[in-house]
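re: ur question from yesterday

yeah so i grabbed the chain u mentioned. its 112 aa long if i counted rite. heres the sequnce exactly as i have it in my notes:
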Amino acid sequence: MSEGRTRGDGQSGAAGGGVGAEDGRQPSLREFVHGRVSDLFSRMEGDELDGLYRLVIAEVECSLLEAVMEETAGNQGRAARILGINRGTLRKKLRAHGLVPQTPQPTGGGGG
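ran it thru and got these C-alpha coordinates back, copy pasting raw so excuse formatting
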Protein backbone atom coordinates (compact mmCIF):
# COMPACT_ATOMS: atom_id res chain seq x y z
CA MET A 1 0.00 0.00 0.00
CA SER A 2 1.47 3.37 -0.90
CA GLU A 3 1.96 6.07 1.68
CA GLY A 4 -1.10 8.22 2.30
CA ARG A 5 -3.61 5.64 1.07
CA THR A 6 -6.46 4.58 3.32
CA ARG A 7 -7.18 0.90 3.90
CA GLY A 8 -10.72 -0.40 3.57
CA ASP A 9 -11.10 -0.40 7.37
CA GLY A 10 -10.75 3.41 7.41
CA GLN A 11 -7.31 3.33 9.00
CA SER A 12 -4.47 5.26 7.46
CA GLY A 13 -1.89 3.36 5.47
CA ALA A 14 0.77 5.96 6.26
CA ALA A 15 2.78 5.92 9.45
CA GLY A 16 2.67 9.58 10.39
CA GLY A 17 3.10 12.94 8.75
CA GLY A 18 -0.63 13.57 8.55
CA VAL A 19 -2.74 16.43 9.78
CA GLY A 20 -5.41 16.29 12.43
CA ALA A 21 -4.65 13.30 14.64
CA GLU A 22 -3.47 14.21 18.12
CA ASP A 23 -0.73 11.55 18.17
CA GLY A 24 0.88 12.86 14.96
CA ARG A 25 -0.34 10.08 12.66
CA GLN A 26 -2.53 10.70 9.64
CA PRO A 27 -6.19 10.63 10.73
CA SER A 28 -8.42 7.78 9.61
CA LEU A 29 -11.21 8.61 7.19
CA ARG A 30 -13.68 8.42 10.08
CA GLU A 31 -11.62 10.86 12.18
CA PHE A 32 -11.22 13.21 9.23
CA VAL A 33 -14.96 13.32 8.46
CA HIS A 34 -15.80 13.75 12.16
CA GLY A 35 -13.41 16.69 12.40
CA ARG A 36 -14.77 18.36 9.28
CA VAL A 37 -18.41 17.98 10.41
CA SER A 38 -17.47 19.36 13.84
CA ASP A 39 -15.81 22.32 12.11
CA LEU A 40 -19.00 22.88 10.12
CA PHE A 41 -21.06 23.02 13.32
CA SER A 42 -18.58 25.48 14.83
CA ARG A 43 -18.86 27.76 11.80
CA MET A 44 -22.67 27.64 11.87
CA GLU A 45 -22.70 29.48 15.23
CA GLY A 46 -26.10 28.17 16.29
CA ASP A 47 -27.75 28.30 12.86
CA GLU A 48 -29.84 25.27 11.96
CA LEU A 49 -28.58 22.80 9.39
CA ASP A 50 -31.12 21.02 7.20
CA GLY A 51 -30.24 17.96 5.18
CA LEU A 52 -26.77 17.44 6.65
CA TYR A 53 -26.81 13.68 6.00
CA ARG A 54 -27.63 14.11 2.33
CA LEU A 55 -25.03 16.88 1.98
CA VAL A 56 -22.22 14.85 3.57
CA ILE A 57 -23.04 11.65 1.67
CA ALA A 58 -23.21 13.49 -1.66
CA GLU A 59 -19.89 15.27 -1.04
CA VAL A 60 -18.09 12.13 0.10
CA GLU A 61 -19.54 10.04 -2.73
CA CYS A 62 -18.54 12.60 -5.35
CA SER A 63 -14.98 12.83 -4.00
CA LEU A 64 -14.74 9.04 -3.82
CA LEU A 65 -15.91 8.65 -7.41
CA GLU A 66 -13.49 11.32 -8.63
CA ALA A 67 -10.54 9.70 -6.86
CA VAL A 68 -11.34 6.19 -8.11
CA MET A 69 -11.90 7.38 -11.67
CA GLU A 70 -8.53 9.18 -11.56
CA GLU A 71 -6.83 6.08 -10.13
CA THR A 72 -8.29 3.90 -12.90
CA ALA A 73 -7.66 6.46 -15.67
CA GLY A 74 -11.39 6.49 -16.41
CA ASN A 75 -11.77 2.70 -16.72
CA GLN A 76 -15.34 2.27 -15.46
CA GLY A 77 -15.20 -1.52 -15.26
CA ARG A 78 -12.13 -1.43 -13.05
CA ALA A 79 -13.54 1.45 -10.99
CA ALA A 80 -16.78 -0.49 -10.40
CA ARG A 81 -14.78 -3.52 -9.20
CA ILE A 82 -12.73 -1.36 -6.82
CA LEU A 83 -15.91 0.21 -5.43
CA GLY A 84 -17.75 -3.11 -5.20
CA ILE A 85 -20.69 -1.93 -7.30
CA ASN A 86 -21.86 -2.91 -10.76
CA ARG A 87 -20.88 -0.82 -13.75
CA GLY A 88 -24.44 0.37 -14.39
CA THR A 89 -24.69 1.72 -10.84
CA LEU A 90 -21.33 3.44 -11.26
CA ARG A 91 -22.44 5.11 -14.49
CA LYS A 92 -25.67 6.29 -12.83
CA LYS A 93 -23.71 7.80 -9.93
CA LEU A 94 -21.17 9.41 -12.27
CA ARG A 95 -24.01 11.04 -14.23
CA ALA A 96 -25.74 12.19 -11.03
CA HIS A 97 -22.56 13.96 -9.93
CA GLY A 98 -21.80 15.36 -13.39
CA LEU A 99 -18.65 13.27 -13.70
CA VAL A 100 -19.35 11.60 -17.07
CA PRO A 101 -18.11 13.49 -20.12
CA GLN A 102 -21.00 14.39 -22.36
CA THR A 103 -21.21 12.26 -25.50
CA PRO A 104 -20.98 14.46 -28.56
CA GLN A 105 -24.24 14.64 -30.44
CA PRO A 106 -23.97 13.46 -34.05
CA THR A 107 -24.26 16.17 -36.61
CA GLY A 108 -26.70 15.74 -39.45
CA GLY A 109 -25.75 14.79 -42.99
CA GLY A 110 -24.63 11.19 -42.70
CA GLY A 111 -20.92 12.03 -42.77
CA GLY A 112 -18.52 12.50 -45.60
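noticed a couple things. The CA atoms of residues 39 and 45 lie 10 Å apart. also The first helix runs from residue 29 to 44.
anyway ttyl
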